[in-house]
Design brief:
Blueprint (H helix, E strand, L loop, with lengths): L1 E6 L7 E5 L5 E5 L5 H8 L8 E3 L2 E2 L5 H7 E4 L12 H6 L8 H10 L15 H15 L3 E5 L7 H12 L5 E5 L3 H7 L2 E6 L2 E6 L1 H4 L2 H8 L3 E4 L2 E4 L2
Parallel strand pairs: 3-8, 3-9, 6-7, 7-8
Antiparallel strand pairs: 1-2, 1-4, 4-5, 9-10, 11-12
Bound molecules: adenosine-5'-triphosphate.
Adenosine-5'-triphosphate (ATP) binds next to helix 1.
Keywords: ATP-binding, Nucleotide-binding, Transport
GO molecular function: ATP binding; ATP hydrolysis activity
Family: Belongs to the ABC transporter superfamily.
Length: 232
């Protein structure tokens, strides 16, 4: 169980919520609402004493154990080594012993065989996001937080990632996204942030009722015959 209690800062305002074991969450909200900041608080990249994993303050857990518990995947891949290949990068993603078979399996799962021995620095933005996903699967944390993982993916890749999110390949997931079709299709619980405050925390079904869509997105999106329609 993951819990945050009364967290406030100059960006976030009195944040409290609880996620049960293996309950997945989607975090929505406008640009600058505080989604990435909340993710960094939850993973203790922004140090605090208000986040608890199974009632244990995560700031008191040693770094290695915390890395196994919660993994924050940033929106972009930062590569410090110009000459690191995909295969080498993934080998570094293991928290403990490297399993080369697992690396090969993930590379074929994500259809990245052609990139295996190429330098990550040369990858396109979508490919870099797939590297981040592959790394998260290998890392295999109890909770993985994805910050805009799908922003640069084509529709086929988006479907692949959707299938992975729906599968048991990863444990508990927290997904920050601006893609409402993805959020709607995943059916995970929703947290909506506005100006650093939680405006909604509840079921996917309730969030995507037309009355809530109007409240949170004005008239720019509507549900018609169970499909989301954007009005630009
Ligand atoms: N280190 C910082 N110092 C000062 N202000 C910051 C810092 N980090 C974030 N902010 C501000 O806090 C607000 C929330 O930022 P955050 O990145 O959490 O938003 P977000 O909801 O993830 O936005 P987006 O959807 O655009 O990625 C923004 O106005 C941002 O400028």
């Amino acid at each position: 169980m993951l819990e945050i209690k009364n967290y406030s800062s100059f960006i976030l305002n009195d944040i409290s919520f609880k996620l049960e074991e293996n309950e997945n969450l989607i975090i929505l909200g406008q640009n600058g609402a505080g989604k990435s900041t909340l993710a960094k608080v939850l993973s203790n990249l922004i140090n605090n004493n208000q986040v608890f994993l199974d009632n244990e303050d995560i700031s008191s857990i040693d770094d290695l154990k915390r890395a196994k518990f919660i993994n924050y995947i940033p929106p972009g891949l930062t590569i410090f080594d110009e000459y690191i290949t995909l295969k080498e990068f993934l080998e570094l993603s293991f928290v403990s012993t490297v399993d080369n078979q697992k690396v090969s399996n993930i590379i074929s799962l994500l259809k990245m065989e052609k990139l295996k021995d190429k330098f990550c620095k040369s990858f396109s933005s979508g490919e870099k996001q797939l590297v981040l996903l592959a790394s998260a699967i290998i890392h295999d944390a109890k909770i993985t937080i994805f910050d805009e993982l799908t922003a640069n993916l084509d529709i086929n890749r988006l479907k692949d990632v959707y299938d992975i999110f729906k599968s048991d390949l990863l444990n508990q997931k927290i997904i920050i996204t601006h893609n409402l079709d993805l959020a709607y299709a995943l059916k995970f619980k929703i947290l909506f942030l506005k100006d650093g405050k939680i405006e909604f925390f509840g079921s996917n079904e309730e969030f995507f009722e037309n009355s809530n869509l109007e409240k949170f997105y004005n008239k720019s999106i509507q549900k018609v015959n169970n499909h989301l329609v954007v009005n630009l």
